[in-house]
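Quick one: co-fold with zinc ion.
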Amino acid sequence: MARLTILEYPDPRLRTRAEPVETVNDEIRQLVVDLFETMYAAPGIGLAATQVNVHRRVLVADVSEEKNQPVALINPEIISAEGCEITEEGCLSVPGYYDRVERPDTIRVRALNVDGEAFEMEAEGLLAVCIQHEIDHLDGKLFVDYLSELKRTRLRKRASKTRRQEPAGAAL
Ligand code: ZN
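Sure, here it is.
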């Protein structure tokens, strides 16, 4: 197991579009293990491979209080989305910054599991928000992209001035 380094905004590597996984092999399973270890240690509730500079379509999440409901999705695709919810989001790649983002609150996702088998799952509330946030990472997108230009300019200035180390609350 290895704890991986998380890229921080505005690192241009966070803008890379991840490639689909062709075969779920031991290398991918090790990536999933390492992503979980890195996410739990951060601590965060979700992590995409893009954030650790591995550009494959893999993400992990665990939004439970007890940290005992791990979800690993390989090649995730949202097949339907409904409703609308505004959530205060944070991101392990944008330490110490939180803002409100509006997204669908119920989604249906198709993905492969760590055995390479296709499955579908429905997610709602925080898990739905988290999965959408992580899929955005795989597409090179960050939650701050949903904010106004003014807010993003301020954030870029702050990011270049300070490197905040302290882990925050529910970071994705
Ligand atoms: Zn994030």
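If it helps, Residues 91-93, 133, 137, 172 surround zinc ion (CB under 6 Å).
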